[in-house]
Design a protein that fits this description.
- The complex is a heterodimer of chains A (about 425) and B (about 475).
- Chain A is an alpha+beta fold and about 425 residues long.
- Chain A has three domains: about 30-170, Lipocalin; about 175-275, Beta Barrel (Lipocalin), CATH 2.40.128; about 285-420, Lipocalin (Beta Barrel), CATH 2.40.128.
- Helices cover about 20% and strands about 40% of the residues of chain A.
- The N and C termini of chain A lie far apart (about 95 Å).
- Chain B is of the alpha+beta class and about 475 residues long.
- Chain B has three domains: about 40-150, 3-Layer(aba) Sandwich (Collagenase (Catalytic Domain)), CATH 3.40.390; about 175-315, Collagenase (Catalytic Domain) (3-Layer(aba) Sandwich); about 320-475, Lipocalin (Beta Barrel).
- In chain B, helix 12 (about 345-365) packs antiparallel against helix 14.
- The relative contact order of chain B is 0.08.
- The chains are: A alpha+beta (about 425), B alpha+beta (about 475).
- Chain B: InterPro entries: LP_HExxH_w_TonB.
Chain lengths: ~425, ~475
């Protein structure tokens, strides 16, 4: 009998327990409803821009491109790019993948740079330029949408266009910025960020901005690719320098009177970039290393000649017929001299100096000439002579290593001419 | 006691039932349920009208990475403007011929249910590219479509071959072909069929070609891929018959000979030794395909083939032969080798064979083949390639005879040029081959395709037909 009671008791307990209902309600509403609202909101935002959007792409292989997009509420988009300026129409849609995602879902100008067939636009076989056409939303404010490619992790920033003029100047802005930045004549540039003296690195070609500063005796470098919108230079990644964080430089202009570039940072602080003729901190070991370890075993290549006063290839080596590279041999095997040779695709030109390097104790290379490989044809003789004379400059060169196998040689005398070997 | 128990049970049941009544909100719209949506445009309407509504086939052309077998490959979407032209050609040359022969319900029942289109090929790590895949009769993925050009017939045929191949699998999976098929070439199926490609056999191009072709055609297979397994063999034969046409298949068979190195084995009178084994294997396979289509599906293969070929020709027309033949044009030479051709006119063969007999009796030589060369303006060179049976097979002789030509809208008038150029070989055999020389001299021919004589032979054979006598003609490979 007792057993039976126990059984009932157990059953009642079970029955009552089974009645326990989960009363929690999703406080933010239904997940799916929210997701469709989000997608809808993004689409409305995209289609709602009267003048469309300026798009700034940075592929995973650090190629930058500027686009103009306009979106309709009917899944159509018209776009042009700095590399294909004729507008063309294709389709887009928003889809809930792992994140809300903007898909450019039929072939368009944007796909050219991602096309895996090199004959279409270049890049690597099977990869293109490691770009994307499926972009997940990272953040969106009224005027700026940040996206990230889901396949190659390239970055796309959409900035709401303000006017027709804003659109028409979008593709020129980077060129104008490049012209402004190249007004600084020296390789080394300085700026004061917060209370830190920084060396500024500007690569208008690859659209890279970097700052180096001394932190507890060690040189620290931060850099990021940027895009140009009007007179603003906006970084894809924020740069942290000491206690300051820089995400953009606005109102970038050159002041001819002072020779400075003036700008203000995102925090409103004024930033002046000035010319400098010496590095902030020089690694004296690089020169010897550069001479001892040429990039291609016995030589290193340069594709653009000397940059002088901010002008790339100031002497015009690229105008030499069939020019491919300047090959610098620190030492010709079996000889006591090195050489500067001009590779013309199939053979070296029968000219160019033989030069002997000396590395000083403070890590600078200087050269003396030791003959030549012949007299250059009259048409290109000034190019060869100018290039040769620059190598022989009094004071020699700083050697700055900017990447694993990339070296810049910068004239010590005024830092106004330099050459890159890679 | 019993009552109490009953009461307890009723009470328990009530509590259980009430306690368990939970209501979940099932009204929410799941995002993406039922597929992606977008504002439909003309392309979507076209697909709906031509594929989805009549045949329940989905044509997906908007990007969806999950449709690709290898989602980690960098592939780009298709160009929107190419979708309709591509799918239109596929419809007209794949669906429509079947519908015409078998009716729409047949295609509604058996076609695969989805196409997925993408623009670039899929690059593989071994350096090859993938142009398309098929999944179990359910879905066909077509890649590399952004290069599509309806005027590029080989590219169009490539796509059709894929379509007919995959659809062949579906038919074969519904009604299996007789096991007799796989007994024709049982020991030559190989998993490494992909090692059969040009360049794999010899550094000498001519020898490589012979050995390459001998490795599938010479073994009784219609393509290298058909050596992979019995099922693919079957559908390759079917799709080659449909996509390539009748003349293409017959031409493959007519060119199967036994080789000794670079040369076809032959007797002292120049009669070739045929590869009868491969010929009979291919013919038996063809016969089984024909009877399979007839008996299992009630489809007359010849009818389907004619319709498919007509559709391809309509979509991607071939220019008339006269406009393509001549100096600097697509074709310059017609090669006539009666041992490799069937269907030459009796009148031409009489002239040719009499000349050949004349060579054999008079000089102990034989004619291997002739070619008609049109690479000089206002001239046709009749080149007689002849052999000495006592010499090595590599020691062939050439004799050229010139004809002066006028061509008015494809009517070619030939006159034996007088005087003939200096050519010792030509002078030596001239007297032995009068019938061949006079077959052309002072005659008028229509320069044209001979697809009325050898059906579906455009771009394979080009010919000359006497204007005064339509029963006297010759044609040859181009």
């Amino acid at each position: 009998m007792m057993k039976k009671h126990l059984l009932y008791l157990f059953l009642f307990a079970l029955a009552l327990g089974s009645c326990k209902k989960d009363k929690t309600e999703p406080i933010l509403g239904n997940v799916d409803d929210r997701l469709s609202e989000t997608l809808k909101a993004y689409q409305t935002q995209l289609a709602g821009a009267q003048f469309g959007w300026k798009g700034y792409l940075l592929t995973d292989s650090k190629v930058t491109a500027t686009f103009l997009f306009s979106f309709t509420d009917k899944n159509r988009t018209t776009m042009s790019a700095d590399y294909a300026t004729t507008p063309s129409e294709s389709s887009y849609r928003l889809k809930a993948l792992q994140r809300p995602t903007l898909l450019f879902d039929t072939y368009s100008t944007l796909h050219l740079i991602a096309d895996p067939t090199p004959s279409k636009f270049g890049g690597e076989t099977g990869e293109g330029f490691y770009s994307d056409f499926e972009f997940a939303f990272l953040s969106a404010s009224a005027d700026t949408i940040k996206l990230e490619g889901t396949f190659n992790k390239s970055k796309l920033v959409l900035v709401r266009s303000k006017s027709v003029t804003d659109n028409s100047s979008a593709f020129e802005a980077p060129d104008n910025m490049e012209a402004t930045l190249s007004r600084l004549r020296t390789y080394f540039k300085r700026a004061r960020v917060g209370d830190l003296d920084c060396e500024v690195r500007l690569e208008p070609n690859g659209r890279v901005l970097g700052f180096s500063y001394i932190d507890a005796g060690v040189l620290k470098t931060v850099k990021s690719n940027y895009f140009v919108s009007g007179s603003s230079l906006i970084l894809f990644e924020p740069l942290v320098i000491g206690t300051s964080t820089i995400t953009s430089l606005n109102g970038v202009s050159f002041d001819a009177a002072t020779g400075f570039i003036n700008a203000s940072t995102n925090s409103g602080a004024a930033l002046q970039i000035k010319e400098a003729i010496a590095p902030l901190k020089y690694d004296v070991t690089v020169a010897a290393r550069f001479l001892a370890n040429p990039v291609y075993g016995t030589y290193s290549e340069c594709y653009t000649g000397f940059t002088v006063d901010g002008v790339i290839d100031a002497y015009g080596v690229r105008t030499i017929p069939n020019f491919f590279s300047i090959d610098y041999y620190p030492k010709i095997t079996g000889q006591n001299y090195g050489a500067v040779r001009f590779w013309l695709g199939t053979a070296y030109g029968a000219y160019g100096p033989a030069i002997i390097p000396t590395v000083s104790v403070d890590g600078k290379i200087s050269y003396v000439q030791d003959g030549s490989y012949g007299t250059a044809p009259v048409a290109i003789r000034p190019i060869i002579t100018n290039t040769t004379n620059n190598f022989l400059k009094q004071g020699g060169f700083y050697v700055i290593q900017t990447d694993t196998k990339v070296y810049d040689m910068v004239a010590v005398a005024d830092a106004r001419s330099w050459i890159t070997f890679e | 006691m019993k009552k109490k128990l009953l009461l307890s049970i009723v009470a328990l049941a009530t509590i259980f039932l009430a306690g368990c009544s939970k209501k979940d909100d099932l009204s929410a719209n799941l995002v993406g349920l039922g597929g992606d949506t977008w504002t439909k445009g003309p392309v979507d309407e076209w697909i709906s009208t031509n594929y989805t509504t009549p045949y329940n086939i989905e044509v997906k052309y908007k990007w969806d990475r999950s449709e690709l077998g290898e989602i980690y490959k960098n592939v780009v979407p298709v160009k929107e403007e190419l979708v309709v032209p591509i799918m239109d050609i596929i419809k007209k040359t794949w669906i429509d011929p079947y519908v015409a022969v078998k009716g729409a319900n047949f295609m509604k029942t058996y076609t695969q249910k989805q196409f997925y289109l993408a623009g670039s090929p899929s690059y593989n790590s071994n350096g090859t590219i993938t142009l398309g895949t098929a999944e179990a009769g359910r879905k066909i993925v077509l890649l590399d479509l952004n290069t599509f050009n309806p005027a590029n017939k080989p590219a169009v045929k490539q796509i059709l071959h894929t379509m007919h191949h995959e659809f062949g699998h579906i038919l074969n999976q519904n009604i299996a072909v007789t096991p007799d098929y796989q007994r024709i070439t049982p020991s030559d199926y190989t998993a490494t069929w992909f090692n059969i490609f040009r360049g794999a056999y010899s550094s000498t191009a001519a020898l490589d070609k012979i050995l390459y072709e001998n490795d599938f055609w010479g073994k009784g297979f219609v393509t290298p891929y058909s050596r992979s397994n019995k099922d693919d063999d079957f559908v390759e034969t079917l799709s080659t018959l449909l996509e390539g046409g009748a003349a293409n298949f017959d031409n493959i068979i007519n060119n199967l000979f036994v080789y000794d190195g670079l040369y076809i084995k032959r007797n002292g009178k120049g009669v070739y030794e045929q590869n009868t084994d491969a010929r009979s294997k291919l013919l038996r396979k063809k016969a089984i395909v024909i009877s399979y289509m007839k008996d299992s599906w009630g489809i007359d293969l010849a009818d389907l083939q004619t319709r498919t070929q007509a559709a391809i020709e309509a979509q991607s027309p071939t220019a008339d032969f006269n406009s393509l033949l001549g100096p600097g044009k697509t074709y310059g030479t017609i090669t006539v080798n009666p041992q490799k051709l069937t269907g030459l006119s009796a009148k031409f063969l009489t002239a040719y064979n009499t000349a050949n007999t004349g060579m054999q009796n008079g000089m102990g030589l034989y004619i291997d083949n002739i070619s008609l060369i049109f690479t000089t303006a206002n001239r046709m060179i009749l080149r007689v390639n002849f052999m000495d049976p006592t010499a090595a097979l590599s020691a062939g002789f050439v004799a050229d005879f010139n004809y002066t030509t006028t061509n008015v809208n494809g009517v070619l008038t030939l006159t034996y040029t007088n005087p003939q150029p200096t050519n010792a070989n030509a002078r030596a055999i001239e007297a032995s081959i009068p019938t061949l020389l006079t077959y052309f001299n002072n005659q008028q021919f229509n320069v044209r395709w001979v697809d009325d004589i050898v059906p579906q032979s455009k771009s394979i054979f080009g010919g000359l037909v006497k204007t005064a006598d339509a029963t006297s003609y010759l044609f040859g490979t181009l």
